[in-house]
Amino acid sequence: MRILITLTAAALLGACAIGTDYKRPPVDTPAAFRDAPAASGKPLAELAWWELYRDPVLEKLVKVALVQNFDVRIAMARVEEYRALAGVANIGSIPLISAGGNATRNAYSTVGPTPFPSTYPTVNQSYTPNLTVSYEIDFWRRVADLQAAARAQLLATEYARETTRITVIANVASAYFALRTQDRELAVTQRSVAAREKFAVLTRAQFARGVVSALDLTRAEANVAAARATVSDLQRQITQSENLLQVLLGQNPAPILREAATEGALLPESPEVPTGLPSALLERRPDLRQAENNLISANAQLKSVKASLFPTISLTGSLGSTSATLANLFTGPSKVWTLGLSALQPLIDPTRNFYQVDAYSAREKQAILSYQQAVVQAFREVSDALAARQGYAEFERAQQDQVKSLREAQQLVMKRYASGYSSYFEVIDADSTLLNAELQLALAQQNNLLALVQLYKALGGGWQQVAADAPKAADAAADASH
């Protein structure tokens, strides 16, 4: 008993957390993002996704996906799992109370090797209810560190859910922009088919008059067939893109209702907005906060394992009653109780405990490196997206100039052909070159939009607004299901 008292006093006087408290590891944060444009106003990542994309069809699709997408729903279920595990960990800080009881009836032999006296009752019975309380005194914060680790894991899972939501928004926007680009390509190609058919009719009439050769006629008809084949292939791509979008919405393949493609831009031009400071990226991107909470959990687990090397001190007590008859079960003389203080020091196979410390130390090192790697990768993703945004924007402007010039050239060639100054091959070449340039312009616009999507995602934009917009998303999903 004196040893237990000494241990308790020493623990009370010198109780402290075992191990080093968590500190965010150092990371090399640049002063500004590479190739970031000079702009003023609200940082891009602080814009809500519906403010950035500004398309009513896309807005509805994203809202439905945030409710019905399977990846989002799986991530939400995983949060529920870790919330329950955190609740299990919290039980360690409260006393464990158990209740029990037993009733026995025994019969003894009167002719055995040691028979009972004839006056002794051969049948006895007893009733024993009891209540037991046990509580671990967390001197070394072993239980507290386990709880901290569970809370950090819960936070990491919640940030993983937000990362999934950002990814779903980006995937839906990318798939929608690809679909709208295919709509544009289909409209351009159908217009080319109509123009080539008219030209084929003109060539057929000229062939009948002997103005052009049979070679010119067959080339004209082949040109029409090639454009029609492109139309069929684009229709296949559009159907597959619609199916992809519906799966992202958590729905079966079906058409996507939208407006017809136009000659204008796919979406209103977004203004140039600042990217913000790189240091803010550490707080803004949920995947970085997920990595940091994984590190916090690893640190807490290591401290808990170190605390396991020290004695576990527990208070135990029980209160009950024992009686041979039910009538006397809860009377004063039948009461029984115990109260104790115990200390358990692990002694068997102590080397295994030290190996556990080494293993969890290695896990903490891995978590530190994973966090630092995630930060560097995040800076790279922002820089890549900025470069893509700038490069594709310049490419789109140049492609627009090219299309404008080629349209003028085609009109001149057609006039010259009608007057007999240009050959049939010049007409075919001008038409094919213009069609290819218009298709390239549609792809350039798509790439420019996709670069904006990737930049917004790389900056961690919009995830704070996702939670605030959850009721609207649920309403949109309900409307879509009717």
Description:
There is one protein chain. By secondary structure, the chain is of the alpha+beta class. The protein has a single domain (2-96, 138-311, 351-481), classed as Up-down Bundle (Outer membrane efflux proteins (OEP)). It contains twelve helices and four strands; from the N terminus they run H-H-H-H-E-E-H-H-H-H-E-E-H-H-H-H. Residues 1-16 have low confidence and may be disordered.
Secondary structure tally: strands: 4
Spell the H/E element sequence: HHHHEEHHHHEEHHHH
Radius of gyration: 38 Å
Largest sheet: 4 strands, antiparallel
Quickly count the domains.
1
Proportion of residues in extended strands: 5-15%
- Helicity range: 55-70%
CATH topology: Outer membrane efflux proteins (OEP)
Q: Architecture, according to CATH?
A: Up-down Bundle
